[in-house]
Design brief:
Helices cover 35% and strands 27% of the residues. The protein is an alpha/beta fold. It is globular.
């Protein structure tokens, strides 16, 4: 479904963030993208979503194929319409707008079936039902994370990418987020790529895993083969 081929990306024409990266993700897979701070995880996800130019980033070599079509130099809106959604780190949404308005805004370019998807989002995150009229800025970190995942579902993606969804969450919230990811994969048949530093829970549900270090893939193996010890070696370089 998704193939990164020898992908290299820079910021400001100088800072190398990705260096000849090969990653592939088949339809229906959950792929874990692991790596320490600054490894290149966010850059990789933004490259796929077409968002690097907004950070003065640029793809300088290689290709990104989504269902055999190159995504290079395509606008993020075009990429979104093709069925790719990115839940960025930082839980970006409109903090001054209500939960309902945020979910509505997310479905703006994907209006067909929006009311059914709203029901679906509320069934995944039942607390949102009681908070539809609350300003997003008043939600807790965990609640916000679920709102932004809900906003991604409103875009009806076939490929969902999540950037460090567990960052700063309590263990119970991490559990809820990963339960939701697993349900979306199982029930909605979504293909999912999750970037995290290390989350044992992610390795339990992933079917494939890559480890990035300084912009390069340094390990690619089934999650069952990624032991804590093995990962530590890679992380400590
Ligand atoms: N907007 C930017 N301008 C310049 N350099 C950047 C920018 N964003 C990231 N970088 C650099 O690119 C490299 C990869 O960063 P990236 O954010 O992709 O890593 P990451 O794996 O997502 O890290 P983290 O786990 O901290 O989020 C780092 O060296 C970083 O300093
Ligand atoms: Mg990051």
């Amino acid at each position: 479904m998704l193939a990164l081929k020898q992908l290299s990306a820079n910021y400001d024409g100088a800072i190398v963030a990705l260096d000849e990266v090969d990653v592939s993700c088949g339809a229906g897979q959950i792929v874990a993208l692991l790596g320490a701070n600054g490894a290149g995880k966010t850059t990789l996800l933004k490259a796929v979503a077409g968002m690097l130019p907004f950070d003065r980033g640029d793809i300088v070599a290689g290709d990104i194929l989504f269902e055999d079509v190159s995504l290079l130099r395509r606008h993020p809106a075009d990429i979104s319409r093709r069925g790719i959604a990115l839940v960025q780190d930082g839980r970006q949404c409109f903090r001054q707008l209500t939960v309902a308005e945020n979910l509505q805004a997310a479905s703006f370019a994907h209006s067909k079936g929006a009311s059914e998807r709203l029901e679906l989002v509320q069934s995944y995150f039942p607390f949102l039902r009681e908070m539809m009229d609350r300003k997003a800025g008043l939600l807790s970190g965990g609640q916000l994370q679920m709102l932004v995942i809900g906003m991604a579902i409103m875009c009806n993606p076939r490929l969902l990418m999540l950037d460090e969804p567990s960052l700063g969450l309590s263990p119970v919230m991490v559990q809820s987020v990963f339960d939701a990811i697993e349900r979306m994969h199982r029930e909605l048949k979504m293909t999912i790529v999750v970037a995290e530093q290390t989350v044992p829970r992610l390795l339990k549900i992933a079917s494939d895993a890559y480890v990035l270090s300084r912009g390069r893939i340094v390990m690619h193996a089934p999650p069952s083969e990624m032991t804590e010890e093995e990962l530590q070696k890679v992380y400590l370089n």
